[in-house]
Amino acid sequence: MKAPSVRLEVAGIDSLILRLFDHIDEANMPWMLAARTRLQAAFGDALLDLVPSYTTLLLHYDLCQLDSAQARAKVAEALEGLQPADVQNGREHQLPTWYDRSVGPELQLLARRSGLSEAEVIARHSGHAYQVFALGFAPGFAFMGLVEEILAAPRLSTPRQRIAAGSVGIAERQTAAYPVVSPGGWNLIGRTPTRLFGSDIEGYSLLQPGDRVRFVAVERAEFIRLGGDDSPLEASQ
């Protein structure tokens, strides 16, 4: 894969969007990580924030140190001759997950939509290592993908007002685990006891862009032993 052609878009008086790709693809991540590393080095303390997504980087810089032209020049210089990063440097995580209708009320729906049994849905979801593409929506919420097309499902038409921390869900070809109690409209299929966000976690979020995650199916007893909350979540909630 050749180096992406980066397009710059103005996001604010002190912000630029660097568009590297037009489509979501796991092959994007080595380039996104390499670009992030080079930009961090090039901007130094003039960099206020750098937020990766599936296809773009949002760059927020210090106007007291750089004007727009200088920022654009630094971007061009930093990305000259860009080479993909070694994604093996990302961490690998295993998230024990209890797949059950009581905590994953859309498990049955996904099985019905796909023509698979619930056991097959579980086997397919837990049988793949997912790339962490970006953090957003809620603190520590990691957007991961890509799930098999047969498991893809649109977000719920009416989001729930309260989803338990650790809830594992699918939206389109993305998957995620809710790190904190929050509203949400993803199709829930299970729950993990793993703590994903906290002030005592390095970087506050257990999962970071470039990491890979595998959901490991466990029984309820093991889920409880690991500290999981098995309080049911009704499909109509």
Automatic annotation (TrEMBL):
UniProt xrefs under InterPro entries: CT_C_D (IPR003833), Cyclophilin-like_dom_sf (IPR029000), PxpB (IPR010016)
MF GO annotations: hydrolase activity
Keyword NADP found: no
Annotated ranges, domain Carboxyltransferase: 6-207
Alphabetically ordered keywords of this record: ATP-binding, Hydrolase, Nucleotide-binding
Pfam families: CT_C_D (PF02682)
Annotated PANTHER family: 5-OXOPROLINASE SUBUNIT B
Identification of the protein by name: Allophanate hydrolase subunit 1
Lineage: Bacteria, Pseudomonadati, Pseudomonadota, Gammaproteobacteria, Pseudomonadales
